[in-house]
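Case study.
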Amino acid sequence: MEAILQTLMDLGGVTAAMVFDSTGQLLGHRGHSIYDRALCEQVSGALVRAIDAVQLQQEDWETIAAQFQDGKLILRRVGATGGRTQVLAVVADGNLNPSFATVAIRVAAGKLKKLLEGGGVSSPGLAAASSSQLGGGGPASQSQPLSDSRPVLANSGLSWSKTSSVGLSRVQVADPAAGAFLSRCAKALAQAVGPIAKVYVEEAVRRVAPEAPFAMSMAAPLVEDLAGQIEDPVDRKQFKAAVAKS
Amino acid sequence: MTDLAQIAKIPNVASAVLGDLAGGFYDAIRVADGESIAAVTGFISTSLVDAGEQLGLGPLGRVSLAGASRACIIAVVGGSVVTVSVEPPGSLPAVERALDTSSGARG
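After joint prediction, the assembly is written out as follows.
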């Protein structure tokens, strides 16, 4: 993986290149010294949140190019293995040649897909070993491997699937009843916060059930967690009532 | 850049939604669920703003999403977020250039 990421680093203007999965786990990175592993892991968390939201609007996304005042961030979907989607992220300054970079990123994504599908990076240990930074290796942190599931947009637009193929949702449910309960929570929460409620529910599930599939036994703490995020007391009360009624 | 009527006149622009970074909805053209789109793109924008701050890239200006079936441009102007749906997706670069031209002409 290092060699593939290095080809991107050789492009003019590229300051960092990284691969992460739908749990936010960093699978590999190369970058200038300021873009160390800790920073890349932090950034991958924010990018996974953004991609989760993109999934709600456009499930078949392939590239996301964000133009900032002082540089550019390009995300490219690599593939999906082991129930997780992998994403290549390239950070660049204003010297990047966009046309050339587009081709180079497409080629790199293809190579990474083959590598990942071939089991080239299959465990956190291997992933950590494949990460490095120019001018010194970063410490390999222990990321929590989480199972994930793909959101299936039903009529309501809010449902969870027990299995995953390409989605970036990181919620796994123990049974259909738990999935249905999460959908009800998201719908009730949407009354207060809008469609982004699904993302909030996913984050809350990760807090109350970080290491196991969400089950109905965790329903009460989940509702309390979500209610705690609703500032308006009336909305909070209505949310609890809606979830209890459903 | 936030003049939806002007943006909607650009060839291959299917719809346009005006919202803000908090996910608030203000206006929409040629799309029924503008509120949902504004909420989601507001969240996408704030998440990318966070990533940009962490990476030292400065303020976010524009996001281009491309897929097999459609494409979308999210323009962040101050606190406003304009979401422009582009069809077909191959027209994305042309619409980006048109948006640049229109915002440049406005100063």
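Observations recorded in class. The first strand of chain B starts at residue 13 and ends at 20. Helices of chain B lie at 4-8, 34-55, 92-106. We will return to this complex in the next lecture.
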